[in-house]
Amino acid sequence: MMTGKKLLFTALRHEPLTTLPWVPFAGVHAGYLTGFNARELYTEQDKLYTSLLKVHDLYKPDGMPVLFDLQLEAEILGCELQWSNDAPPSVKTHPLADQDEIPEKIPQASDGRLPLVLSVMEKLTKTIGEQTALYGLICGPFTLAAHLRGTNLFMDMVLNEEYVHHLLTYTTNIAQQIADLYLKAGMDVIAAVDPLVSQISPDHFRTFLTKPYTDLFAHIRKAGQHREVFSSFFVCGNASNNIEPMCETSPDCISIDENVDIATAKKITDQHNITIQGNIPLTTIMLFGNQQDNMKYVIDLCDSLEHNNLVIAPGCDMPYATPIENVIAVEQAVHQTEKARQMIINYNTPELEFHGELPDYDRLEKPLVEVFTLDSDTCAACTYMKAAALDAKSYFGDRIDVVEYKYTIPENIARIRKMGVEKLPSIYLNGTLKYSSIIPNKTELLKEIKKCL
């Protein structure tokens, strides 16, 4: 009988599939299964290990991550974190915000929370590693650079390109070091998770990120010479325009979320013979839907795509309180597709209705900046989009209003659909779309707001 690990490896080797692999991205959600909050889960070894075994038992994954925390490296490098009970920590301070220097510190196995993570990886490798592929998730070089530099990074890309290149060389060295530590601990797939890739243009990607990522994936391949290991390029947000340049860096797999049309993206990844992974919506389907919604979405997804080079997964880290029965429904739809198909005959997912009122944008007393996000507490791209708006608020003060609408609230989902917001995160100014999945630098945003004053 083929194990889940072998099934996933088959997909990552680009070999024919009879059954699709399933990878639940249960980060903080693992704690929900065992009653632990996010901070307990990510700071206490036994609680993390116990929770991951629960994920394995309930959701029958072919592959699964050990930790979904893009702030692990940043914390070691001096960023202060803001902790939440039901979400991964977020970066609170940026050590390089006021100084364009290049640090020298490279994280070691004894630094920060790495001893906890490496120990859990080693234990899981021994207990479930033969049957299930284990993912080691590292913070991608660009997002790590933003954690260190803050929103100034986006201005640097225009005014100080040389510094950005040097900073990315440094953060790529860190990514390679963490990858080495995770591979030594037994990880099968190293996934570089870089949400901010979706917030830059293809030209900027090729200018700043082609070399770092090509080097990183080459490094992972070389490190896996003595056993089979794989690489994944994990991006959140509307990365549609960057799928092609991402492929050019030669990962084994590309992971996308619901902001990207997977059928269109798969045409590109197939041309490069790269596996694509995704992209079940986190909130509308997994968090707020029911079992039938989840089964129907997955079956429709599977029916719409060629099954070569394909792995079914949530679009990103599942929300903490995702109903357990919904995730089980996804697993059944992937692994027992025909049986699940019979369970949803004639079922249609109901539409959310918006019952509130939109602002009268033509009669506003002062400019209104609306930031539409997946969740600025959990999505790094959303964090920096909101930070850009808050930078403007700090500059203009009471002369403007800034409000965030998170996609984790049903009323906001309905509002976003009513507004016709197509991609997250986005910034609207007085009801008009100004930035869609592109984080503006401070000068650009201030200029746009000044036109409305």
Structural features, described:
The mean pLDDT is 95. The chain contains 20 helices and 13 strands. With 453 residues, the chain is α/β, with parallel strands linked by helices. The N and C termini lie far apart (67 Å). It is globular, with a radius of gyration of 21 Å. The strands form three sheets. A seven-stranded parallel sheet has the order 1-4-5-6-7-8-9, sandwiched between helices. A four-stranded mixed sheet has the order 11-10-12-13, sandwiched between helices. The chain folds into two domains: 340 residues, TIM Barrel (Alpha-Beta Barrel), CATH 3.20.20.210; 90 residues, Glutaredoxin, CATH 3.40.30.10. A hairpin with a 2-residue loop joins strand 12 and strand 13. Helix 9 runs parallel beside helix 11 and helix 16 packs across helix 17.
* Major β-sheet strand ordering: 1-4-5-6-7-8-9
What is the CA-CA span between the terminal residues?
Answer: 67 Å
> Helix fraction?
40-55%
| CATH architecture heading of the largest domain | Alpha-Beta Barrel
Helix and strand content put the structural class at alpha/beta
Number of helices: 20
Low-confidence stretches: none
